[in-house]
Amino acid sequence: MAELRMSLEKVGFADVRTYIQSGNILFSSDEIDSLGLAQKIEKHIEETYSCIVPTLVLNQPSLQAIVDNAPSGWGSDPKWKYNSLFLLPPYDREKVIASIGILKPDIETITPGEGVLYQSMSIELFGRTTTGKLAGVPIYQRMTIRNWNTTRKLAELLRSR
Prior knowledge:
Blueprint: H1 2-10, E1 14-19, E2 24-28, H2 34-49, H3 60-68, E3 80-87, H4 93-100, E4 108-113, E5 116-122, E6 143-147, H5 148-159
Antiparallel strand pairs: 1-2, 3-5, 3-6, 4-5
């Protein structure tokens, strides 16, 4: 991640910082086109590291809105796991939800938001959930997942910049 941080600085990004070694990069840029920034980063990673990494760029207001617009009580039950499923554009939210499969409402939920699906599931019954098996569904390639604590922390870090 340190090498990635330095390489992004060399191509013009400022204040580059990584968070928890999982592909979270915070930076400043005069560019405001999130899709264009994502494409620039993807191209840079492919040319520099010879791997294709689908990339999503969210600005501070967008990420803060995702945190602020979470379902009521989101993240409050310690017996449940809470994730943010960030959708990589372009996407059709209804098709994404349908491709996940039939949920078991007593042990899991998906709540749509702007650019995100709020996923919750029983920790104890995780193995029985539909959404716990997302890695085996093709739509998984069109999203990036962060747990709710990471989502909130990233929003906090962006606010403090």
